[in-house]
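Many introductory courses stop at the sequence. We go one step further.
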Amino acid sequence: MNTLKVGDTAPNFELLNQDNEIVKLSNFKGKKVIVYFYPKAMTPGCTIQAQGLRDSKSELDESNAVVLGISPDAVKRLPKFIEKESLNFTLLSDEDHSVAEAFGVWGLKKFMGKEYDGIHRITFIIDEDGKIVKVLNKFKTKEHHNVVLEALSS
């Protein structure tokens, strides 16, 4: 895994959102973008992480930041997650994990003695010009939104 670092230009990508519409990173030029990779919609850790971002919307808006959650989930699974948790940000489907690979967050994982390839829970904060200004990979899911808000304010 070769994760992108602070100072790197974020790869422009196109993915389908929960409404089956194409979303491009370049659509958000002039805004800060929180790109957070999560393993699977509607699982306990991913739900807690998403709820924290949902509940931080006003602070994120004040920082001129938008949230894009990316997982390998199929598009049809995303609206269920949004509706169930009243999410107020965009979820994107990266079924072939090409964007996860471009950001360097797809790789070997271990869980309960098994090894498999999957998405690592890593968040990138991208500035208004498309440069990565923070890489967040050390956090508890219930504290993720606080870590993001702190990174935005520094």
